[in-house]
Amino acid sequence: MMNTSKINLLFLHGFPFGPSLWRRQRTALEARGYRTAAPDLRIESSPATMDMMADEAIAALDAAGMTQAMAIGFSMGGYVAFSLLARYPERVSGLVLVDTRAEADSEEGKAGRRRLADIVLKQGAGAAAESLIDKLLAPTTLRNRPEVAQEADKLMREASPAAVAAAALGMAEREDRTGMLPDIRVPTLVIVGEDDAITPVSVARGMAEAIPKAGLRVISGAGHLTMLEQPEEFESALVGWLDESGGRS
Ligand code: MLT
């Protein structure tokens, strides 16, 4: 029977993916009685800012009739979760920050975003997939599990070039959120893959230490794409924390 005391879960995808990135987790969590929503944050008007994506997330909560939800944000989705918490704190009952960071881009990082946006607009979403795949996955995944790389590649090619470029330019504009961390009062879990090359364990640890009472779970055998590389470990980290933290509103 559905446990109606369980909190709602809002899954926010990363770049350059779409909501299907969370397919396995939504199925697993819904089977456990959670209600979930997963907005499509691929916006074609450029730059697609984190605030615009947060507005999409609020529209998805409204459409699902959810007053509040725990925001589970992966990488770019984590940047969106920070915007949600800053602008709509009454809608956020907790945070799960997955392979993400609070810092803004460096100047070099911003220049890289602009280059990627140019290339994608000229050559298509496949160009982003090709330039990112080696950084997204752990070396062991790349070596031993070609099916995971194929799935990630396929998912990245589903986005329109305009949406990929707009998100890259939107991320380049995002605010530094490190000042928010000590004031976060909602239950928070930080999850990171042990071989994450984009947002390494040291970044995740620093973020978890700056947030009062945040938990940290390191997923072994995973790089940046923890939910695709180690879905079972990811789910047990999330469910274990939800059960023990009373991620209930
Ligand atoms: C993501 O996974 O969403 C991206 O790696 C985020 C980023 O490039 O900063």
What would you report as the Rg, rounded to the nearest angstrom? 17 Å
Bound molecules: D-malate
Tell me the number of helical segments per DSSP (H or I, 4 or more residues long): 11
Shape: globular
Helix amount: 40-55%
Helices and strands, in N-to-C order? EHEHEHEHHHHHEHEHH
Mean pLDDT: 95
What's the total number of strands? 6
Largest sheet: 6 strands, parallel
Strand order of the largest sheet: 2-1-3-4-5-6
N-C termini distance: 20 Å
Oligomer: single chain
Strand-residue fraction? 5-15%
Explain this structure:
With 249 residues, this protein is of the alpha/beta class. 49% of the residues lie in helices and 13% in strands. The chain has helices spanning 23-31, 50-63, 76-87, 107-123, 125-136, 139-144, 146-156, 161-172, 201-210, 226-229, 231-245; strands spanning 8-12, 35-37, 69-74, 92-98, 188-193, 215-219. It has a 6-stranded parallel beta sheet with strand order 2-1-3-4-5-6, with helices on both faces. It is globular and about 50 Å long. It starts with 7 loop residues before the first strand and ends with a helix. D-malate (MLT) binds at residues 14-15, 75-76, 171, 198, 224.
